[in-house]
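Retro notes, item 3 of 5
We never archived the inputs for the adenosine-5'-triphosphate complex last cycle. Fixing that now. Sequence and ligand:
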Amino acid sequence: MPVTASTSSAAQTRGLAAALAELARPGDVLLLIGDLGAGKTAFTQGFGAALGVTELITSPTFTLARVYQGRLEMNHLDVYRLEQLDEVLDLGLQELLDGDSVTLIEWGDIIAPALASDYLEIRIAFGATDDEREITLVPVGNRWSARTRAFTAAIDQWCGPRQGGN
Ligand SMILES: Nc1ncnc2c1ncn2[C@@H]1O[C@H](COP(=O)(O)OP(=O)(O)OP(=O)(O)O)[C@@H](O)[C@H]1O
Ligand SMILES: [Mg+2]
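Structure as it came back at the time:
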C-alpha cells in the first residue's frame, strides 16, 4: 500500500528521510523518483545525516556513485542519463546491492527493471507552492511491504490531512 506525506520545506523533507533512515537495514535499496529539483538529493542528505554521515552529501550526477560512511555504509547513485545506467551496470551494481550498505538511487525508475524485486520507491512530486512536495512511499517486494506499518508510523507527522483541498 502506498503511503503519501507532504512537506513544506527542504528541511522537512530531510526530516522525513531521517525518520525513515531509523528503519534502514543492511542491503536496503531506495529508489528516488521525481523531476529535476524535486528533492531527491535533499532526501538523501537527511537520510545520510540520520545514519551518521558527517561528510557533505552532494548530487552524484557527475560522479555516478558515492559511498559514505555512517552507522551503515550508504551508496548514493544517480542514473539520470541512460549512459549512466550502463556505467552503473558495468560498475557492478549487483555487488553494490549485495553488500551490507544501504543504497539510494536518484532517477531510480530508470534502473528498476534491472533490480531485484525488493526496494522502497520514494516518489517526490511538486506541490501547490514552491516549497511543497508530495512524497509517496511505495513498497515493492516483501522486504518493504512487511515494514509498511513501521515506515508509516515513522513518517506519521508528515501525513496529516491535506490543507486547502484537492
Ligand atoms: N519540501 C521540499 N523538499 C525538498 N526540497 C525542497 C522543498 N522545498 C524546496 N526545496 C528545494 O528544492 C531543491 C531540491 O533540490 P535537490 O537537489 O534535492 O533535487 P533533486 O531531485 O536531487 O534534483 P536533481 O534531479 O537535479 O538531482 C532544493 O533547492 C531545496 O531547497
Ligand atoms: Mg539530485
